[in-house]
Write a structure and sequence with these properties.
It is built from two helices and 22 strands. The chain is an alpha+beta fold.
Length: 275
């Protein structure tokens, strides 16, 4: 009897030890799951909606001297599309063409800096420089990036995206690389960086084929916030079944207004969020 009692106690003890280990392992797994970093969500509000020419394949969007400029591309599957730079009338949606590229070029992002307008092309590895007042072509430049996607500026340098997770800073005189910013989200490279805008010390980037805009710390390259604009993409496709991806963010530093749109979208939206 004594032997059986001791044996029973031994089995009960082992049961508690096993249960305790299982409980602790479960807690460790749960704690690990909770520790996974999540990018902070940036809430926004749509304040106004403006008409936009739904035939425009938007590549760049910016505000310069109170006017909203847009650059467009010309995909082969859209023979009617043209690579242009022009001014948008927000009240009517009319696009006032200022520059048109030869058909051999696919127009991409644009930026104004020190009385000049700069434009990228998609796969030609060449960019163009124009007079910011007359839009007369002044020069061209080349770059080693496999592709050209978007441009913006921090007021001193030109910042270029090429569809990867790296942003290239260019000297505005020589148009040569002076710095590379590797962008990460929660420790992982954040690629497909597309249309760019510099707002109050931070870079904002559309993510190609995604309904989000990310906020990037220019010192570390880390994504520190994200806007989810899925509702606007859904509305755009309802208004125009041919509407393509979200692309285009412009900031008016004088009025502190922000505008967003997309390729072949029928509307431009003015949005507000903490920035």
């Amino acid at each position: 009897m004594l032997y059986n009692a001791r044996l029973a106690c031994y089995f009960i003890l082992m049961l508690f030890v096993t249960w305790g280990c299982t409980y602790n392992a479960a807690n460790i797994k749960e704690d690990t799951a909770v520790a996974v970093p999540v990018t902070p969500v940036i809430n926004y509000a749509v304040k106004q909606s403006f008409p936009h020419d739904a035939a425009l394949f938007t590549e760049g969007l910016l505000v310069h001297n109170g006017q909203l400029f847009e650059s467009t591309g010309s995909p082969q599957n859209l023979p009617q599309a043209k690579s242009m730079i022009g001014v948008i009338n927000l009240q009517t949606g009319k696009f006032d063409e200022k520059i048109a590229l030869d058909k051999m070029y696919f127009g991409e992002g644009i930026v104004f800096l020190k009385n000049k307008l700069y434009e990228l092309t998609y796969k030609n590895k060449v960019g163009f420089i124009y007079d910011a007042a007359t839009f007369k072509k002044l020069d061209s430049f080349t770059y080693k990036n496999a592709e050209g996607w978007s441009l913006t500026t921090d007021g001193k340098r030109i910042i270029m995206s090429d569809g990867t997770s790296a942003l290239t800073y260019l000297d505005p005189i020589k148009l040569t690389p002076v710095k590379q910013l590797n962008v990460t989200e929660n420790g992982q490279p954040k690629d497909s960086l597309n249309e760019l805008e510099f707002i109050k010390g931070y870079l904002y980037a559309n993510i190609w084929q995604n309904n989000s805009i990310v906020k990037i710390d220019t010192a570390s390259g880390k994504v520190v916030g994200k806007l989810d604009l899925s509702s606007l993409t859904f509305e755009a496709k309802n208004r125009n079944s041919a509407a393509d991806v979200l692309n285009g963010i412009a900031y008016d530093s004088v009025t502190d207004k922000i505008y967003v749109t997309g390729k072949l979208w029928a509307n431009i939206y003015r949005v507000e969020f903490a920035h």
